[in-house]
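Tutorial, part two.
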Amino acid sequence: MILSKLALNPGSRQARSDLGDAYKLHKTILRAFPTPLPDDERVLFRVETQKERLSAPTVLVQSEHPPDWEQITRRFEDYLSEAAQVKNLSQLALKNGELLRFRLRANPSRRVKTQTDGEGEKSRRVAIYRDDERAAWLLRKGKTHGFEVIEESLIIKPYQQRNFLISSGEKTHRATINVVDFEGLLRVNDKDALLSGLRSGIGPAKGLGCGLLSLARAG
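Running the prediction step on this input gives:
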């Protein structure tokens, strides 16, 4: 896996536009990768919360293949305030039983069945708004992806952006999704399942900046 850290230039018109629209930001990020994407590629990204008001907005991008960020800076010369930082995570080693700090921006939701028609049963995604249900959603994801959340450490914060414009062909529609930030401690129960979850992302809305799970040593 490759982790890139992009410091966007707030003076760039394109960067400001992308920061206001996660769908546009996703499209810009994909310029750094081949079209079509390789079958094994999954590009995940997250706009980091600015700790200081005047600091450059930062975007984390995780991918399987090394990106070519010059594909973006050649088109938008002032897009980055500094050169992209790129780190190879191929030597990432996880151990069963170890305790790690984590951060995850996610879209907690569930599928509900809708009325059936001649084409069979259909479903739609419904947002989860209560914090206890959001925590339960994350616990279920943990069981799937080989980790256990230490519940007393869990912090859930609403993310400020909820409205997105999504384009499909020539049509554009507005989508409102429930985005929250999870932070806390987790215990590794199945290192291989967790590594698979890191690669694939956690939960839906990955094209809107959700799903990237960040880990750090707890010590």
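Residues 47 and 59 are 4 Å apart (CA to CA). In part three we will examine how such features are distributed along the chain.
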